[in-house]
């Protein structure tokens, strides 16, 4: 069983059977090195058998900052990832590092499958994403109930937006709760960066619903980063 690359480089963020989602960031320095790293990853993975049937997908996105790569993988469980690290990861990374020396592997976070997934624009349902907007929220300490409450507040604000600043070109938002209880990651798919910017800049001052999101108890910070889909791999015959 070998790796299969998908033409639209899009993982199914609600894939059935997913028990753990791992998201990591690499820094590579320039757009040219981003492209080279993606090709090195493709070569390293497609030249080897798929490492474990418990790995359901592995995808890479290139940051619009011209520097970063976002890695997203779906696993049936946490142990599957640890077994991969022990038996298969080093050889792949060594080949990638030989092709693109100096990669900085910044951080790895563990998440549950999406707690909530909401459509943004019914007219864009099923569209191919042109951009992935990653919104990371951080909290003062571990509290699963607070994670869920914050996500619920964001979903309420999005619903409140529907008649004020419709999310034209928004495909869907997928909210992941970190395993350690301190973070939420929203992976929002849009048809284009322009569609996202038009939504973000429209509608005037924030209303009460969004104010409640930004002033949520225990929220210590948040950041938004944009990525273009580059490579999505899954097991194939």
From TrEMBL:
Q: Which InterPro entries match?
A: Dimeric_a/b-barrel
**What highest taxon heads this organism's lineage?**
Bacteria
Q: Which GO terms describe its molecular function?
A: monooxygenase activity
Sorted alphabetically, the keyword list is: Monooxygenase, Oxidoreductase
The protein's name is: Antibiotic biosynthesis monooxygenase
């Amino acid at each position: 069983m070998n790796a299969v690359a998908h033409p639209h480089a899009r993982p199914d963020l609600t894939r059935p059977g997913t028990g753990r989602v791992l998201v990591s960031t690499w820094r590579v320095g320039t757009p040219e090195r981003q492209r080279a790293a993606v090709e090195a990853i493709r070569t390293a993975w497609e030249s080897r058998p798929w490492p474990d049937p418990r790995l359901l997908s592995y995808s890479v996105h290139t940051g619009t900052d011209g520097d970063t790569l976002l890695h997203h993988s779906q696993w049936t469980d946490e142990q599957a990832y640890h077994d991969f690290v022990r038996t298969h990861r080093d050889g792949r990374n060594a080949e990638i590092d030989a092709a693109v020396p100096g990669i900085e592997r910044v951080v790895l976070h563990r998440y549950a499958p999406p707690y909530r997934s909401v459509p943004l624009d019914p007219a864009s349902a099923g569209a191919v994403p042109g951009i992935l907007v990653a919104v990371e929220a951080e909290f003062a300490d571990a509290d699963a109930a607070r994670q869920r409450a914050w996500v619920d507040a964001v979903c309420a604000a999005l619903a409140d937006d529907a008649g004020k600043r419709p999310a034209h070109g928004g495909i869907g938002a997928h909210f992941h709760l970190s395993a350690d209880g301190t973070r939420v990651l929203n992976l929002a798919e849009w048809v284009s960066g322009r569609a996202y910017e038009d939504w973000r800049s429209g509608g005037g001052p924030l209303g009460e619903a969004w104010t409640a999101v930004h002033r949520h108890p225990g929220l210590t910070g948040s950041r938004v980063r944009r990525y273009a889909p580059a490579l999505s791999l899954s097991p194939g015959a």
